[in-house]
Amino acid sequence: MMRPPGLILAGGQSRRMGGDKTILSLAGQPLIRHVVERVAPQTGPLYIAGPPTLTTLTGLPTLADAMPDKAGPLSGLIAGLRHVRDHHPDAKTLLTVPADCPFLPTDLVARLAAKSGEKPVVASSADRLHPVIALWPIQCLTHLETALFKDGERRMHAVLERCGFETIAFEFVDSPNGRHDPFFNINTPEDIEIASQFTSGIST
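Below the sequence we write its predicted structure tokens.
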């Protein structure tokens, strides 16, 4: 099976962190590098929706958001889908993940792809949906462009409701320091401290 292209969404403003959280150190390397190490073996071409400076940090190409006024992850998703449509015409789907989840499952793509069809397939854990951790059919692009550019809709949950979607539930992960959500994301300095307790889970 062809591995889908991937897109790391790194265009957030990190208000609660007070700076660019993607470059914060976790287990001796920038946070975003943990995400790259988790995702790259599961995808084909991998891109980052975020500032060009992240190319130097990761070696990956960056894509500018489809809307330049920080329209949130939907704008980055649309940019990614457009790029795949134009440069990878054989690809049927695009994987998206956020730049602040260092413990992403190593079987994320395989499990999402097993349910892939005409609708987005979205990861969930502990009965919580994670709209930016998903496998998106390229054919969703028109619906997403209409939502953002015509209707001004930026909320990922609302966009998913328009498209219809499937879900795959993931279990918590056991580590030497306890159980944690595989989609634990880092928003505050306290979250970095919590994540550092589970860094042994990064290599599993």
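Residues 6-203 form a domain with the Spore Coat Polysaccharide Biosynthesis Protein SpsA; Chain A fold (CATH 3.90.550.10).
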